[in-house]
Structure prediction request, 172 residues.
Amino acid sequence: MKLHEDNTLGSLGSAIGKGLLAGIAATAVMTLSQMIEMKITKRQASDAPVKVAENTAGVKPATPQDKNQLSQELHWSYGTTWGVARGLIGLTGLKGLPATLLHFGAVWGTAIIMLPKHNAAKPINQQEPKDIAIDVLHHSVYAITAGLVYDALDAGSKNERKLNKIAGMLKA
Prediction:
């Protein structure tokens, strides 16, 4: 069996897998960031994931413990899944800060549109600057971590070698 150098489905699967790993790591670091911030600011945990689930799927947790568990499960699922987007961005050959900024824009942009639509947050123009800053902080922590992890997992990939070859030709 001969292996093909240009294996599109293999590249897609690899990017998705690396993205999922980056999403898990980013969600873990974002969760830690949120825990630290909530201790400092005395802010309560957000119930936005549960509000979206109630609004979209009719899910109604029976107890406060069920609500907390569902919120955590949705938080981790959502964050992990957004790692796939980072993998797809990586397939384009984009990496580093440009890829991280694009990923941040997609993740945070979706949140500021989706959450108010499902009555899980106020529209951004009705939020306090402090609340917006906290949200930007946590989503930045997520995007930066996902980018660093994805780029580390993707180091030496065919895409990186292609980009380096193109950059070398442009310098010549």
In short: The chain has a mean pLDDT of 92. The CA atoms of residues 93 and 159 lie 6 Å apart. Helices lie at 8-41, 48-57, 64-91, 96-117, 129-154, 158-171. The chain has six helices and no strands.
